[in-house]
């Protein structure tokens, strides 16, 4: 355990909260409370946040507005774009406020931010003037960090308590009722199954209809329909037409590390960030049969409950299972992998410690018609090892190299 972690552990909660609040205040003060000059849209939930941020940004840009966006994938201000190499979805308070100041300097009208439960817990959302809050969905994640699912959900809800403008909510999610009970000037719901303000009809894979207009996404995964609907609901909130949404969404060919196709020949190879049980489950279901999966359990030292569950899901959906290293931090990588394998009952599987070798093995096992899916890291540029060591990493590039040498 690092000195920073020890200090956090022994410091009373009220002092930590005050410390976080104070830094958030100073960050906003130093940069002149820049969010007051922007229309800020916050996106929270368990899955789909990065894709939804991208979809919303594309639609707003298609409408002619200048947009800034921040997600676990990238930072974008107008035409300038850079990878998020922080290994943090929601950066520290000073970085966020600096980003918002740069957005105002570049004459952006909107800022679309991915907002995490951990970020909210540490007050990184404070002194950001959110105009709209978007709820994508909720499933179990960061349970150990928050001390239970209810606490995790309550952290997400705090974004909506801080946002008095518009609330954009996935009506189909079983947790929607907890997000619908808070005051706002306007609430826009979206969904497929339950009555909502923005509803998708005639849903087939990544194709669907909204208000009589047919939209065909170029992304794999039927779950992306929900991500698109959330973005369309935001557009509806700001008076933009479904036709503008269609034009913008159909231009999106891929999202880095989100069901990203690395190769189609001689077999399909997909890299996805999926790291909670619900995420690989949806990815596996979308790809269908003849799956070869490479997986681990990201974030050594936390969320240990999900490890056997990831193994169980792999057994249920995949014909070949390769369990490997991911981001072990200070935990024993082999121990993590064995815990993932503990969820597998009687399916043959491989434990390969070297992630590069694991990806290579998947390529060797795959035959024409198979589908290889590599989950857990997506487009992340680093692997985190013990004692704070980080090494450059890219699942996509390693998959391409393994495929070319196969």
Describe this structure in words.
Helix 3 packs across helix 10. Helix content is 38%, strand content 21%. The protein is of the alpha/beta class. The strands form four sheets. It has a nine-stranded mixed beta sheet, sandwiched between helices. The mean pLDDT is 93.
What's the main sheet like? 9 strands, mixed
Indicate the structural class.
alpha/beta
Read across the widest sheet, the strand sequence of neighbours is 4-3-2-5-1-6-7-8-9
Q: What's the number of extended β-strand segments?
A: 20
What is the strand content? 15-25%
Residue-averaged pLDDT, rounded? 93
Spatial shape: globular
> What percent of the residues sit in helical stretches (DSSP H or I)?
25-40%
Q: What is the terminal-to-terminal distance?
A: 41 Å
Q: What is the CA-based Rg, rounded?
A: 21 Å
Tally the helices: 15
> Regions with pLDDT < 50 over 5+ consecutive residues?
none
Chain-wise SSE layout:
Layout: H1 3-10, H2 13-30, E1 39-44, H3 49-62, E2 67-70, E3 74-77, E4 80-83, H4 93-105, E5 110-114, H5 117-121, E6 130-135, H6 143-146, H7 149-161, E7 166-170, H8 176-179, E8 186-191, E9 198-199, E10 201-204, E11 207-210, E12 213-216, H9 224-237, H10 242-250, E13 260-263, E14 268-272, H11 278-287, E15 291-295, H12 306-317, E16 320-324, H13 333-341, E17 350-352, H14 355-365, E18 371-375, E19 382-384, E20 390-392, H15 395-405
Helix pairs in contact: 2-4, 3-9, 3-10, 11-12, 12-13, 14-15
